[in-house]
Specification:
Chain A contains 16 helices and 8 strands. By secondary structure, chain A is of the alpha/beta class. Classes of the chains: A alpha/beta, B alpha/beta. Chains A and B meet through helix 1 and helix 10 of A and helix 2 of B.
Chain lengths: ~450, ~240
């Protein structure tokens, strides 16, 4: 096996373009996947046409909220491009300069104050179905955030108006009486007056007014809390049931490295074995010079070794950008080594089935990429039956197990490292046996 | 001469297809045995069984396949390795005692010393075939099985190749080769085996084939072979009609 390994290293050393592609391509793909997972979408670039008159306010009780505050909330959610007219905004959307345009109509204040009509905005967007879907969801999210921020300001103004009614004093509104009696003081004042009244109709009426004032003061006080509840009806308090919280950027690192490990290893193992057949050397080797098992082991080990080096180099490189716990290096190596062996076994199984290097590479690529993507589909994002099917497929291929092993090694994720390693060993044996059968049939 | 190779009752089936049917022959040291016959006659199957790359369905060969050098029709070489690296790799895998000396010997015998560092992928077809045969001989086996060793070579390359093979034969190596070129058979072979549809039709010297009752007295080996094959075809047809 030593001489075969030496031969393959010599061939790899002389196939620089192939080696460069084999490393650069998977690393580029894995980094793209990693970035796609870890980066939240950038704030969308949106044209905003604010047609409301400058300084227009919305009256909430004795308080006033500037309508422009809404536009300000919206500006904070998007990359705002202030645009003067609707026509200009339309042109910007059509040219693709902005993702969409939001038009705040001049009558928004009167509609907000109205009891019968709801205030509305107009959103303009363009593009094909996929882009339309993206724009709608992005703008809906931005508008929801802006609505929430604006409603908090209205809620704050309403709460201040209620406070003035309850506490009294000087409310600061032009024309309002000085030193107003607060609603919460009225029951006490009335109680003292009622005590001095002789029994009779007037006293009875005053007692009814006193009861009402007490009831009104209590309920108005409660309404301040009700505003808070209405503003954010349900508060989220999350608890992680299994494993530890993994920061998304560190999980993205694990995904990127596992994808690279898989591509380098599977392509190299599949291509290496298929190359023996393409060079017509397979029959010569297997005529009692090398056993099938030794040949398969050599190809899998070579691929595993090369991919392990690439993956470790990637982890070390990324470790300079993302905080990784280098004291766990031994666990990283363990997880990567077991994962690489399983990918190597999968690779030789593919190589045994394909007759030439190009077919083997294509088959390896076509099989690996969808499997990796399927393994990343989160539970709950698809129907339960489809997710069960995905889980089954992911279970019989090494990507998910390797991802879990590396996640545990890097981030202390779940399940336990031993479980993942045992799973990888089982897959290595299964694919090794499959490769043996394939090779026997190929002879 | 001492008998080196002895094949007895070799049969090989691929499902319903019988590629070899009860083929037996012997060869002595230094003999050059040519296997001729139409495409699909079983020539490559017979050589593959001798070389150990295929197992017979029944029958046996007296020699361990390790003692048979093998050169397939298409050169089985690593194109990214140099001539010397290819030779050394197979010398190591064959567990040759002194791989360096074996490589030097084969380079000298093939006349490829000046090309030793050249990558095989850059060699001409003739030189590649010489390396291919040299790998078959690297462990100095007593028997060499060559599958159409000169196919796709130009006349000059063929001549060099035969010079190399004949020197090995003169040194005592038994060479069993398949070919469609009856001129080569006439010039170089000491024995001829004619195969047709898996059956051995003739086992004798080229002169015996030419002068047999299959021949028409013109001394043309090709005509004699064709008549032999036609007669076999007719006999089979008669057999089939009788059945």
């Amino acid at each position: 096996m030593r001489w075969l390994l030496r031969k393959d290293f010599l061939i790899l050393r002389r196939s620089r373009l192939l080696v460069a592609l084999l490393i650069v391509y998977p690393v580029a793909i894995s980094l793209l996947i990693g970035f796609a997972i870890s980066r939240s979408p950038a704030r969308p670039r949106v044209a905003i046409v604010d047609e409301t008159p400058a300084g227009e306010t919305l009256k909430v009780g004795s308080q006033r909220v500037e309508v422009r505050a809404y536009a300000n909330e919206l500006f904070s959610q998007v990359q705002a491009v202030r645009t003067a007219t609707r026509a200009q905004a339309e042109a910007k959307v059509k040219s693709g300069e902005v993702l969409a345009a939001v038009i705040i109509p001049p009558n928004i204040a009167s509609r907000l104050s109205s009891d019968v009509t709801q205030a509305s905005l107009q959103v303009l967007y363009d593009g094909e179905a996929l882009q339309q879907s993206l724009v709608r969801s992005t703008i809906d999210a931005a508008l929801a955030q802006a609505n929430l921020g604006f409603s908090e300001q209205i809620q704050h103004a309403a709460a201040k108006a209620i406070e003035a009614l309850l506490r009294g004093g000087n409310v600061g509104i032009l024309g309002a009486p000085q030193e107003l009696v607060g609603l919460d003081r009225i029951p006490t004042i009335l109680h003292a007056i009622v005590a001095r009244q002789p029994p009779g109709h007037d006293r009875t009426e005053l007692e009814r007014i006193e009861a009402f004032a007490g009831f009104a003061a209590q309920n108005l006080s409660l309404s301040r809390d009700v505003f808070t509840t209405v503003g954010q009806p349900i508060r989220v308090d999350s608890t992680l049931l299994r494993g530890r919280r993994t920061p998304l950027d560190r999980f993205a690192v694990v995904v990127a490295v596992t994808v690279s490990l898989m591509f380098v290893c599977v392509l190299l193992a599949a291509g290496g074995l298929a190359a023996e057949r393409e060079e017509r050397a397979l029959a010569r080797l297997l005529r009692q010079l090398v056993s099938r098992e030794a040949l398969l082991a050599e190809k899998a080990l070579l691929a595993a070794g090369c991919s392990l080096v690439v993956a470790l180099a990637m982890l070390a490189g990324i470790g300079t950008l993302v905080t990784l716990d280098f004291s766990r290096l031994a666990l990283w190596v363990l997880a990567l080594a077991f994962g690489a062996l399983a990918f190597g076994a999968l690779g030789v199984a593919i190589g045994a089935l394909a007759r030439e290097v190009r077919a083997a590479s294509l088959l390896a690529f076509l099989l690996s990429l969808p499997l990796a993507l399927l393994a990343l589909v989160p539970a709950g994002s698809v129907s339960s039956s489809f997710y069960d099917a995905i889980s089954t497929v992911s279970f019989v291929f090494p990507f998910k197990a390797a991802l879990q092993a590396l996640d545990t090694a890097v981030n202390s994720g779940s399940p336990s490292l031993l479980t993942s390693l045992a799973h990888l060993v089982a897959l290595t044996v299964a694919f090794g046996l499959l490769a043996g059968v394939g090779l026997r049939r190929a002879e | 001469m001492s008998e080196v190779l002895c094949a007895r009752g070799l049969c090989k089936s691929y499902g319903e297809v019988q590629a070899l049917i009860d083929v037996s022959f012997q060869a002595s040291a230094g003999e050059l045995v040519a296997i001729v016959g139409p495409n699909g006659a079983g020539k490559t199957t017979l050589l593959s069984i001798l070389a150990g790359t295929q197992r017979p369905t029944s029958g046996s060969v007296n020699l361990d396949a390790k003692l048979v050098g093998w050169a397939p029709q298409q050169p089985a070489l690593y194109s990214k390795l140099s001539v010397a690296e290819n030779l050394e790799l197979f010398a190591r895998l064959e567990r040759v005692t002194d791989p360096g000396a074996a490589v030097a010997r084969m380079l000298e015998q093939t006349g490829l010393q000046r090309r030793r560092e050249e990558q095989v992928g850059r060699l001409s077809g003739g030189n590649r075939q010489r390396v291919n045969v040299a790998i078959g001989l690297i462990s100095d086996p007593p028997v060499l099985a060559l599958d159409e060793p000169t196919a796709a070579l130009d006349p000059a390359q063929r001549e060099r190749m035969w010079g190399f093979i004949c020197r090995r034969s003169q040194a005592g190596t038994t060479v069993v080769f398949s070919t469609h070129n009856l001129g080569e058979v006439q010039r170089h072979a000491t024995r001829t085996l004619v195969l047709s549809q898996g059956r051995l039709l003739f086992d004798g010297t080229p002169a015996q084939l030419r002068d047999s009752d299959a021949g028409d007295g013109s001394g043309d080996l090709e005509r004699a072979l064709l008549r032999l094959l036609e007669r076999d075809e007719a006999a089979r047809a008669q057999e089939a009609a009788g059945a």
